[in-house]
Specification:
The protein is α/β, with parallel strands linked by helices. Helices cover about 30% and strands about 25% of the residues.
Length: about 250
């Protein structure tokens, strides 16, 4: 079912609603939604409104709101994926898959072995692009929120900030603690750190451990950075202890 994210203040509890702007044009001209088809309006805060298309007006849709509910798609855990900047467009793939797998935020991080560097002009453009990818992935995967893509931070700053706010899961190729064992007992606020193509430097791993991070291994094989991120989030998303029934995190 097609989903559109829109401000909660714009959605009436019942009755007719005119979906215009970019959402309206997309639904009317690209998707060519017809009277009788159902769509969902989302407020980005886990509120959902079931609607039926009443009329396709060419540039917008006239909808009839038939009911409301809380999203059942959000996990019982806020996971921030702290992804060290990879080369090329890999961060776009990571962002898309992270949203599909339930990440609450994506936080680009700059570590010692990062090859990619963003200047001020590049950062603004790339963040806008990644946020759009997050929105599209949230719509496609039925999310109740649109995960934010945060501005890049130095690894040390990210580690110190994260350690004050939640649990740290640090994926490190020299770690010996198995991933599935290590994620047991995590709190509802978790920061997952994934290194760049060259991995983490020993001193970076030492700082993470000093700050209380769980040093976790994804197995004996060396995974690509984008694969490691997807594997870790998949492991958490598919673990029964983190899959709620009808829960939407605040």
């Amino acid at each position: 079912m097609t989903r559109f994210f829109i401000s909660q203040s714009q959605i009436p509890s019942l009755g007719e609603f005119c979906l215009d702007g970019e959402n309206g044009r997309h639904g009317a001209k690209v998707l060519r939604l017809r009277p009788g088809e159902e769509v969902v309006l989302c407020d980005g805060e886990c509120g959902e409104w079931l609607c039926t298309v009443k009329e396709n007006q060419g540039e917008r849709l006239l909808l009839l709101i038939t009911g409301s509910a809380k999203s059942k798609a959000e996990p019982d855990m806020h996971i921030t994926l702290c992804q060290c900047l990879p080369k090329g467009d890999k961060l776009e793939t990571v962002t898309q898959k992270a949203v599909e797998l339930g990440a609450y935020e994506i936080w680009p991080v700059v570590s010692r072995y990062c090859v990619t560097k963003w200047d001020a002009k590049t950062e603004a453009r790339k963040l806008a692009r990644l946020q759009k990818i997050s929105l599209e992935a949230a719509m496609q995967s039925g999310r109740g929120i649109v995960p934010k893509v945060l501005a890049p931070a130095a690894l040390e700053d990210a580690l110190r900030s994260a350690s004050a706010r939640g649990d740290l899961a640090f994926l490190y190729e020299k770690a010996t603690r198995p991933f599935y064992e290590g994620i047991r007992g995590l709190s509802s606020r978790v920061f997952v750190f994934v290194g760049p193509e060259g991995g983490f430097a020993p001193e970076e791993a030492a700082l993470a451990q000093e700050l209380g991070a769980r040093m976790l291994s994804l197995g004996p094989r060396i995974l690509r950075t984008e694969t490691a991120a997807i594997a870790a989030l998949s492991g958490i998303a598919l673990d029964p202890m983190f899959v709620p029934e009808g829960y939407c995190a605040d």
